[in-house]
Amino acid sequence: MEIKVIKNIMQKYQDLAQVNRSLLDSYNIFSINIMSSPGAGKTTLLEETISLLSGDVKIAVIEGDLMTSRDAERIGKKGVPVVQINTQGGCHLDSSMIDSALKQFNLADLDIVIIENVGNLICPSTYDLGEHEKIVVISVPEGDDKPGKYPVMFQEADLCILNKVDLLPYSNFNVDNFLQDVKKLNPDLEIIKTSAVTGEGMDYWGQWLKNKIKK
Amino acid sequence: MEIKVIKNIMQKYQDLAQVNRSLLDSYNIFSINIMSSPGAGKTTLLEETISLLSGDVKIAVIEGDLMTSRDAERIGKKGVPVVQINTQGGCHLDSSMIDSALKQFNLADLDIVIIENVGNLICPSTYDLGEHEKIVVISVPEGDDKPGKYPVMFQEADLCILNKVDLLPYSNFNVDNFLQDVKKLNPDLEIIKTSAVTGEGMDYWGQWLKNKIKK
């Protein structure tokens, strides 16, 4: 009986994810769900991405956080539409939250919707929000052992961004070990190395996003 | 009806936490539950702590991870008893897992049991495992905005370790902002700054632990 209830709820979320994706498709909008540990640099990466693509690409952002609206305020300063979702303690976004957020945008005027999930390398990994691709961001200071320890996130991802590579000289992060561990979990997962500080990889990442635009 | 079931389960975990604490008390063992984001440096901090206290203090470690036993292998090399708990995807440890783990130790021969929780700044914060004190580790590369964004962890903690302070020169982490934000959430929370690389704060942290020993 209880299992049935849980199944129904999960099915409801899955159905709503499909509704979100169909809505985005009807406007030819490409959408990504960016996930990482707290402090891996998602918001800073987004700020730089918006600066890089402004003029060419019309971006909106959905920010997920437990409590504050700090990230939405940072993104809002870049001049793009942004909605903050506060999960009030919830450890991941879900498709019903994205459904509500999408209603706040003028979708006809957008090319890309970027969803920044709650900082958590575990819980968000298995929730379909209706995005087109899932991106996991991992930062050098977290260590090269994270793929093996948080495998589902790397198995589910369509792209991995290895961020804060400017800190490699001050870290014992072994890039070869990291790449090998990722390959074991998800052989086709593309990895882009980035640094918002030095700008390394940012042009490639910007082009990766541009190539996904549907109109 | 369903809420009742959830209440019962939570009560069961709470009761078992008390059983664990009573068991530890009966052996005069002090226990801590260390929590942080993935990659904040918990395991390295533990390795250094064991080196620092070996000879004086008899330590055992319970390692929590989704899948691997890498951390337990690292701790085992330091020559202390260690048990690995694999949560198989679960985003936090619970008191029944600690109950099972404690049965693996010769408690009469221990001064301190250190529990390293799953890397997650959200879900572990509200689960009592039967520890005596909760410690949150936050690392400089994660950014100074984390207390406001993950408030429950800082409200629940008895001690905060600000780790990887050797990376402050390569970061825009503002220590004063961080301390102010922590004070708003938990005015009496003690904060120790550490670096396993330079050794900063490690003697103080070792002495903090020694002062807690009950025999």
Structural domains of chain A: how many:
1
Q: Could you give the count of β-strands of chain A?
A: 7
Structural class of chain A: alpha/beta
Instruction: Note the beta-strand portion of chain A.
Output: 15-25%
How is the quaternary structure best described?
homodimer
Could you tell me the mean pLDDT of chain A? 94
* Helix count from the secondary structure assignment of chain A: 8
CATH class placement of chain A: Alpha Beta
Radius of gyration of chain A from CA coordinates: 17 Å
User: What would the principal axes of the Cα set say about the shape of chain A?
Assistant: globular
Biggest chain-to-chain interface with counts:
A-B, 33 and 33 residues
N-to-C terminal Cα separation of chain A, in Å? 47 Å
Q: Please give the order of strands in the largest beta sheet of chain A.
A: 3-2-4-1-5-6-7
Percent range of helical residues of chain A: 25-40%
CATH superfamily of chain A: P-loop containing nucleotide triphosphate hydrolases
What is CATH's topology name of chain A? Rossmann fold
CATH architecture of chain A: 3-Layer(aba) Sandwich
Unreliable stretches of chain A:
none
Order of helices and strands of chain A: HEHEHEHEEHHEHEH
Largest sheet of chain A: 7 strands, parallel
